[in-house]
Design goal:
binds zinc ion, 2 domains, alpha+beta, six-stranded antiparallel β-sheet
Length: 184
């Protein structure tokens, strides 16, 4: 059950990776902006030049029109530079900034995450799945415990002496085990 959940989560993560790469490539061809207006604030999500930036402001005094739905999507030409997308100091595309002004309870905040980091992050689980699957496969093959990797050569109890995991017997006599040993 846990193994299946892990496989499903890895597949979803792999889909996320593909989606991230598509957005990453697109971020150099266009600058996409998604704005959400809530009653007291405006949240901007901007994708461009390899980064995804999010900012929130509670100052809506400069807004000319606030849409009824609360959502606005704008697709611009490629941004001239990253400062246009996210005007905060960035290191490798990462950045976080809070503009604290005395007397203002709700400051302006901005966060930037580079697409390469998101792509890398979404690859961790599929990579772990691949490595574990390979390890399980090679351990099964080499007559080792599928859970802890302990050598089961000569084992006739059907249980791993190291961790107690029930292990499938390759044949019902120790003869087959001996054969496996002599092969390897
Ligand atoms: Zn074991």
């Amino acid at each position: 059950m846990r193994r299946r959940l892990f496989a499903v989560a890895s597949a979803i993560s792999l889909l996320l990776f593909v989606g991230t790469v598509v957005l990453w490539v697109r971020s150099y061809a266009a600058c996409d902006q998604l704005i959400l207006y809530t009653r007291r604030s405006r949240i901007d999500l901007v994708s461009g030049l390899g980064i995804l930036a999010c900012s929130r402001t509670a100052d809506l005094s400069h807004e000319l029109v606030i849409p009824d739905s609360g959502w606005v999507y704008i697709s611009n030409d490629p941004a001239p530079n990253r400062a246009w997308i996210c005007p905060i100091p960035l290191v490798w595309g990462f950045g976080y900034y809070v503009n604290r002004v005395k007397g203002v309870a709700d400051p302006w905040r901005a966060l930037s995450v580079p697409y390469w980091a998101m792509a890398l992050g979404s690859l961790i689980m599929p990579a772990a799945w691949l490595i574990l699957s390979y390890r399980r496969w090679s351990c099964n093959r080499a007559n080792h415990c599928p859970k802890c990797g302990y050598s089961l050569t000569g084992n006739t109890s059907g249980v791993c002496p190291e961790c107690g995991t029930p292990v499938p017997q390759h044949g019902n006599s120790s003869g087959s085990n001996t054969m496996a040993t002599s092969e390897s």
